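Page 47, continued from p. 46.
Same chain as before, 164 aa.
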Amino acid sequence: MNYYQRLSATELDALKDDFVSFLVVNGIVGSDWEKLKVETPEKAEAFIDQFSEVVYEASLRKARYIMMLDPHHLRCFHCMSEKINMVSLSYAGSIKFDFNDIADLGNLLQDNTVPLEIVSVEKNYGKKREHEMFDMIKSGCKITEGKAYKLLAMCWAKIRASEN
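Result:
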């Protein structure tokens, strides 16, 4: 059974060379693929589904950071092998900040007059790491390089150190 969604036609087109290699590894060359699509479209669909699974699984295995943002919250996640750590920033003010802009985020964190709340939580995965990440992405998270996570985590560490 497939866990991930099927790649769209646009996504498949962008991965055309990889898909052709995938078909070749499975013993299907160009003319065979065209014949398969016409004579047994359900088998062709199954190959597309299999390829989609491989692509999503490989991409998510490489990903380390995801985040979700809205105008007043930034939730950054570090997806480790056994557990996931979230550092969240809540902002109750009315000034607009671009949480995607690391410089803007850094300025916001330095401004002691802005009402901010930073929280950090860690938990073990409730299911396979990649499946949990995929579900979070379907809920609005996006894969990132981790710059915002690292900045918030550093801020959180300073807050914790000042409390001790």
